[in-house]
Give the backbone structure.
Amino acid sequence: MRVIAILLSVSILCSGCDLIGFNNESSYDAKAASAAGETITVYSARHYEADSALFAAFTKMTGIPVNEVKGTAEELVGKMKQDGPNSSADLFFAVDGGVLSYAKREQVLQPLRTAAIDSQVPKKWRDPDEYWIGVTTRARVLVYAKDRVKREELSTYEALTDPKWKGRLLVRSSASLYNQSLLASFISLNGSKQAAQWARGIAGNLARQPEGGDREQALAIVDGIGDVAIMNTYYLGQLSISADPDEAKAPDKLGVVFPNQATTGTHVNISGIGLARYAPRKDNAVKLVEFMTSKEGQTLLVSRSFEYPVNEEAKLPELIASWGTFKSQLVAFSELGDRQREANELFQASGWQ
Ligand SMILES: [Fe+2]
């Protein structure tokens, strides 16, 4: 029997959203037959090619197609609210604890808890009410030029405000959610006054006005523009597999320090997925989340995204493993969202563009 796999066509109002569909028409006819019309729609605010590879692996295994609908978290949550019970979204996938809390608060999600998820994802990486489940974590660390900085010179985020780093620091814009969540965590841990001082101190020590994303900070160290960057670790992993030979060599010249190990711990944020409130393909969506958090799914995901897996049984890529283990900050992920507005205000006043 010839089987035609049907890809749902999802039109979305937001600009800049694109649609990537996966299906499997070859050797999974029986499965594909049952999958026709069972396509899972994932609303994703993530921007990593590794996710598409993970969904493709799920489709290959189950015959269930996955559509990724991309947009900003605000666009996607807005669309889910607007469509209500008619929404085609089965899952909402995003980075940042504050963003996940926002989706929960906007009531576009429903709780999801299964025995498999319970055993695969430690409780600390799940919403206390099960409205979202962590998929990966990401550490915001200090990356330095091995030939110009000694590892022992670096200790805490706070110590980077010392005059010895004047003209030597690199970091992306304060408009970045990554920096806003970092500052939000400092407001939570140390209070507004200290957080404001920190932002001013960093702004005063920059090697250049912020430009580019995290990976550009790493490349700027290699180019000698600055000596130390505040950035997420996984961009080094992504550089290491770049098709550009110079980029692929960049991580060899860079060291990683997990700051605040003797104090409040290294800032960690989370990527998570939540079951849409009106998920039309709930059973399939649950299967996908269970796969994404399984040892196999997690090993595959982090082999390309270079984030940290939430499933402790997953295998780490060599580069990540080489950086060792570290102590994480203890700040509730909902706090990152709650303090975001204040973090923005402090940044505005700090001179950190
Ligand atoms: Fe990122």
